[in-house]
Please model this.
Amino acid sequence: MEINRNAYDHHNPENLIFKSEPGVGKELVRQISKDKEEPKWMLKKRLEALKLFEEMPLPTFGPDLSELDFKEIHFYMRPDSVKNSRSWAEIPEDIKQTYERLGIPQAEREALAGVGAQYESEIIYHNLKKEWEAQGVVFLDCDAGLKKYPKLFEKYFMTSCVPATLHKFAALHAAVWSGGTFIYIPKGVKVELPLQAYFRMNARKGGQFEHTLIIADENSEVHYLEGCSAPVYDENSLHAGCVEIHVLKGAKVRYSSIENWSKNTYNLNTKRAIVHEDGIMEWVNGNTGSKVTMLYPCSVLLGKNSKTDYIGIAYAARGQNQDTGCKVYHLAENTKSHIVSKSISLNGGITNYRGLVKINKGCKGAKSSVRCDGLLLDSQSEAGTIPSMDVKENDVEVSHEATLGKIGDEQLFYLMSRGLSEQEATKIIVSGFIEPLIKELPVEYAVELNRLIELEIENSIV
Model:
């Protein structure tokens, strides 16, 4: 009962023009900033964040992180490839074939407004279709975005949304971030096709720290897709990316992510959005890989009538601990949040929903609903829900539901009495369980993401 990872576990021989020594310190931080020709304020921010990282403790909740040794991780690696190419023909053949196997160029040709591809610490390919460029849409990697839009970066980059003081891994990210995606959608522009980025790690003991910064101006709309994967090794790897989203008045952002890191990867990601008046933030999140995941997408409902929806699924098999959930801060009147979380555990896998809904005093008319469902496929696996509700206003509607259980014998018997094998019956039940996520994914657009979900449904139950 394992996900078929043939398309993801393939790795290329390391072909790098630079690979940092294991560990992180001031010299490496200065080198990253120098290589990228960054302004002084960014180097200052990096160094201040490094000091915070060195001083802050590891999280005291959730999965055990004691086997993660920062002194063994290579925090910065530059592939031997052109940077920011707009042609796949310019990409080295081995790297290009990796992305072909993942379906990225095909998805770009058929159904996407633009694509970015990161390999190790750098963006190697980035392209936005001309019709969206003509409307003023900005879709760049963060290194280029910092150079072309320095004022926007200084205003929004790891300030109010994800400050480096948030926790240890936010500080680490601020110190060593590299690559990622910068998106700006002008007022009133609605990007009808999704934008996609794919982040790939290849090297042993590697670290990847891409930064995603999305600014949706007033009454604009965008859907951003993100995929991630890495080959499996015996040694640990680390992913500590960061996503910051600013949803301005009346704007709508959907962020869809399927994270399929290998089972030696610690996935310690940070995702947060600030949502202004009448804004809408939607999270669609799938976690099917990694050794350990700690990920809790967060929406700060800052403006009146703002809204957030979250739907997520976590899949854990042998040797995996998926600690995921959602956080929402209601800070204004008539704000709404709707959270649906599902998990599947098998072969000794561990899943937990860990969430927070906080409604401040004065947030009259706020509404929040949380539903958590866990499915256990054997007696060795674990699943749990750890919700937190902090409500300081009386004029609100708040609900929470949680169910944990195994596939029922009666369900299996009914389907098998109709001529199905136990394997086929189990697959049908699992497919129905994750159907809410499937219908929210842009199946007709995101070829690679849809392929991963199909593998999960069709090949994980044997």
Observations:
- The longest helix spans residues 40-55.
- Residues 273 and 299 are 5 Å apart (CA to CA).
- The chain has two domains: 6-295, 411-462.
